[in-house]
């Protein structure tokens, strides 16, 4: 980061950051905070955040953390209905956020700009009210944003709601997506979902700029399309997490046994299995996955997050005979140091839900994927992995243990997997080049700093 160091401007300039309080959103926002901090261009960084899932300030002594009340009940905080969660969060936090901002702006230190997650739907109006520029952080891929932006058109054309008979049909407006890949979620009222997305797109359009956790060589064509349709300054400076060694932004404690266990395994032999921080599944699905892993005869490191299986505390739902069947070939943990795991020489594949952070982290370590998307942007991310970058295998026809075991072997031991490994190594290299002097992410980071300092 030395290359970005510049003289501190005469007038100290402070940045205010406002993440959405869930793991997949806090990680990239705090990584961004670290990137901007290390440029030396800003006098201080303040992170305003709801009480829920508060980051641990001792992990980030160079930032100021300001909690605001979120008024969430226990049920609201733990709901798996992301639309209901985002709606109530936005409703409850608007007032406290405005009050907090008013206090900060009354202080002597000048604020350069506010950077908020795209899902804070009131933050543009609040920033406008104070005459403060707002830059949006989109934590997902560029392609997923285009998918969200196209939802009204796709509804008009009859692609949505998805009909079983049309799931395999292509969507020519959003190549290479099929109808089944369109970004949808399970919620008690889908109209709320469409309204929420429309507001996110509208508020992003009226912002002063947009930061992507992506890079030019990865998403060239979606970026070109975005720039044609949304003429706002935008900066593809990702992958964020590669500006630093392993991050300390995890909300859950990492299990410390993962790396010592991997140390005992042969190179590229282990399948890492994790479905992120939000996905929930039924007991039957979980048991099919367990048998798929057992029948594949491959070593595996499996993250079974408490809460992953509906109605189950942790491992009591594992099928009878499973532990005997794997003969010590597997290691199960509640939460792993994922970036370190993916970088470990023993890991040869990643069975993932294709959250954007996981997808990027896998690309950056050259680990090909088995795609198991569940909701929202994950299906589209998976389509890019399998059909555009060709660095992973999807399940196109059902999910039963035999198919799972075969898919694991295709990725881990067959030529097909080897070819994917070669392709993903090229992307890994491109990600690295993008952050070096002369690379695209390096260039956009420089432009972002200049842009913020121009306010
Ligand atoms: C959510 C949505 O589900 C996803 O679709 C969207 O793209 C981002 O927000 P999440 O499900 O948590 O995210 O997945 P992901 O984006 O992959 O983020 C998970 C983060 O948790 C990653 O940074 C990963 O490194 C970390 N993680 C995951 C761990 O540190 N340990 C683990 O065991 C699993």
Automatic annotation (TrEMBL):
Give the protein name, as stated in the record. UDP-glycosyltransferase
InterPro entries in the record:
UDP_glucos_trans
- State the family it belongs to: Belongs to the UDP-glycosyltransferase family.
Q: Name one Pfam family in it.
A: UDPGT
Q: Which residues form a coiled coil?
A: none
Give the GO biological process terms. Answer: flavonoid biosynthetic process
Transmembrane parts of this sequence: none
Could you tell me the keywords of this UniProt record? Flavonoid biosynthesis, Transferase
**One GO MF term attached to the UniProt entry:** quercetin 7-O-glucosyltransferase activity
Under the heading SUPFAM superfamilies, the entry gives:
UDP-Glycosyltransferase/glycogen phosphorylase
């Amino acid at each position: 980061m030395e290359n970005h160091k510049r003289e501190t401007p005469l007038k100290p300039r402070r940045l205010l950051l406002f993440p959405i309080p869930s793991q997949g959103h806090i990680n990239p926002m705090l990584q961004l905070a670290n990137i901007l901090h290390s440029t030396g261009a800003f006098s201080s960084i303040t992170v305003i955040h709801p009480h829920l899932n508060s980051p641990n300030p001792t992990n980030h002594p160079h930032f100021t953390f300001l909690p605001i009340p979120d008024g969430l009940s226990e049920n609201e905080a733990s709901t798996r209905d992301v639309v209901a969660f985002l709606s109530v969060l936005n409703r409850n936090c608007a007032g406290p956020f405005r009050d907090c901002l008013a206090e900060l702006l009354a202080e002597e230190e000048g604020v350069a700009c506010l950077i908020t997650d795209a899902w804070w739907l009131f933050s543009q109006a609040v920033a406008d009210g104070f005459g403060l520029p707002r830059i949006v952080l989109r934590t997902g891929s560029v392609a997923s944003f285009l998918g969200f932006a196209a939802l009204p058109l796709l509804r008009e054309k009859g692609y949505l709601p998805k009909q079983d008979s049309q799931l395999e049909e292509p969507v020519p407006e959003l190549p290479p997506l099929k109808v089944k890949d369109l970004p949808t979620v399970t919620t008690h009222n889908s109209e709320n979902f469409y309204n929420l997305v429309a507001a996110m797109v509208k508020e992003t359009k009226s912002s002063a700029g947009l930061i992507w956790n992506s890079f030019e060589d990865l998403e060239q064509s979606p970026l070109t399309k975005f720039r044609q349709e949304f003429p706002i300054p935008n900066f593809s400076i990702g992958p964020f997490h590669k500006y630093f060694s392993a991050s300390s932004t995890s909300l859950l404690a990492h299990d410390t046994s993962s790396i010592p266990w991997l140390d005992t395994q042969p190179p590229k032999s282990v399948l890492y299995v994790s479905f992120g921080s939000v996905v929930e599944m039924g007991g039957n699905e979980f048991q099919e996955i367990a048998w798929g892993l057992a029948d594949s005869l491959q070593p595996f490191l499996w993250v079974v997050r408490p809460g992953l299986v509906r109605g189950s505390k942790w491992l009591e739902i594992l099928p009878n005979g499973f532990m005997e069947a794997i003969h010590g070939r597997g290691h199960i943990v509640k939460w792993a140091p994922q970036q370190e795991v993916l970088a470990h020489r023993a890991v040869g594949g990643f069975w993932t839900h294709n959250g954007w952070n996981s997808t990027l982290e896998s690309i950056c370590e050259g680990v090909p994927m088995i795609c198991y998307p569940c909701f929202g942007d994950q299906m589209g991310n998976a389509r890019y992995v399998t059909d555009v970058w060709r660095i992973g295998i999807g399940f196109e026809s059902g999910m039963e243990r035999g198919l799972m075991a075969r898919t694991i072997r295709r990725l881990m031991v067959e030529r097909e997997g080897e070819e994917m490994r070669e392709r993903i190594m090229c992307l890994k290299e491109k990600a690295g080049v993008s952050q070096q002097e002369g690379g695209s992410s390096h260039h956009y980071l420089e432009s972002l700093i200049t842009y913020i300092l121009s306010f």
